[in-house]
Design brief:
Layout: H1 2-27, H2 30-70, H3 74-80, H4 85-95, H5 105-123, H6 131-147, E1 152-155, E2 158-161, H7 163-183
Antiparallel strand pairs: 1-2
Length: 184
């Protein structure tokens, strides 16, 4: 999936942007350049939103499958525990002796990515009046500042997701799943 994402972004950058750039330069007016930005934004954000949903969901399914295989009575235990699914599954695995830190930076950030994914899925990326979304966005923005990443912005009360966010989602997912698989 990551390779497909990179190919799409490369194709987008070379073809879409070049074609519009030529068009804008032929008009030589600022309004066409502004129009380009307005058209370019939804395409990039849609691709990034789709990838965020895909990678978080894939991680969720893989972790659920690992937990089902290693925790007897998983379905009943899953219903009794509250909190986000990532931490809930890690705690269930820890009950079976896996010793995974549910408070590690990777797990905490991925939990934020899950909340952001939920914001995209359930609210179309609109963040107003949602404390969990705002807290997750704040945590990701703070993390991004420390590494000078462009991960997420807010424009007119909607999330704008950057490619750095998708890269980090993939990275954190791999670290979490690989860390669990090492314990099996």
């Amino acid at each position: 999936m990551w390779d497909v994402y990179l190919e799409c972004m490369e194709h987008f950058d070379t073809n879409f942007s070049e074609n519009w750039k030529v068009f804008c330069e032929s008009r030589n007016e600022q309004k066409y350049k502004e129009y380009l930005r307005e058209i370019e934004f939804p395409y990039r954000n849609t691709l990034n939103s789709s990838m965020l949903i895909a990678f978080c969901s894939l991680t969720e399914y893989v972790l659920a499958d690992i937990t089902k295989e290693n925790v007897k009575g998983y379905e009943k235990k899953k219903k009794r525990k509250r909190g986000d699914w990532l931490v809930r599954n890690i705690k269930l695995l820890n009950d079976r002796g896996f010793s995974i830190d549910p408070n590690s930076e990777d797990v905490s950030l991925f939990s934020c990515y899950i909340k952001i994914r939920n914001c995209v899925v359930h609210n179309g990326g609109r963040i107003s009046n949602s404390k969990p979304f705002k807290e997750a966005i704040s945590a990701v923005m703070k993390y991004a500042q420390s590494g000078n990443y462009s991960m997420i912005k807010i424009k007119d009360d909607y999330l704008v997701l950057g490619g750095d966010l998708i890269s980090d989602v993939v990275s954190k997912s791999e670290v979490i799943i690989d860390g669990i698989l090492e314990k099996i």
